[in-house]
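=== Discrete structure encoding ===
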Amino acid sequence: MYQIAFIVRQSQIARVEPIYQDAEALSNELIETGADKNKWRFIALFKKKPACQKALFDQTRQILKQPELKIVGAPVPHKNWLKETARAFAPLTLGHYFIYGSHCDKALPKDKITLKIDAATAFGSGRHATTQACLQALDFLFEQKQSVRKVLDLGCGSGILAFAAAHRYPKAVIDATDCDAESVRMARFNAQENHIKCQVWQSDSFEKIDQKYDLIFANILARPLIHMAPDLIDHLAPNGYAILSGFLTHQHAWVMKAYQGKCTEVRQFKIKEWQASLVKKN
């Protein structure tokens, strides 16, 4: 992988995102200390160094009107950080949920929904704000006593959201997909570890999905959420719900515009600069 990174103000992020529309992924990190405190580190990830890197740099500096802006392009060191830090992950309590790894030697709380999720080669340990916002949205939906018979966790990673839904709706059919084969392997492993019946298979977006669901989790990124909106809406059952996440608060209107007219936003769940939105199919 190869990354291009530079520091901007939050108000500038939306202006530079279109320049990097061909990146594999975009990330924005809030800088909390030092001379650049409260600014943002904008990161664009590519499979390899883009041939047009100089043009990207020039366009970025031009649109921001900062000819001296420092932009760094460099290969991303190959290191499995999740695997290396797994042993250091302490159990995590999130509302009704207690999330722990196989290395946990504590007694499990009897008043929590326990989820055994190892930090391995798939994302979804419960520590990211978007996962936490999705769990809040799931609990809100559960408390409304909505009927949910079929659930899909799209881009499931470790499978944590699918497993949480299985606890909330024990009679529901639970499906989970991911475009990454290793994530599928880990989700299947975690399903067995948690004694949860969950069908997991590899699919790029909705390519290999031909059913309709009462609830769809899509905790990915803003741009994929926008691009897949027609397919996601089509795969929702009448009056079905979707929990959309993986985007920053300033991207909310951009994402919701793709669902306007077809879905109604029920509620937003914000954690720091990240958020999830619960929407209902019209």
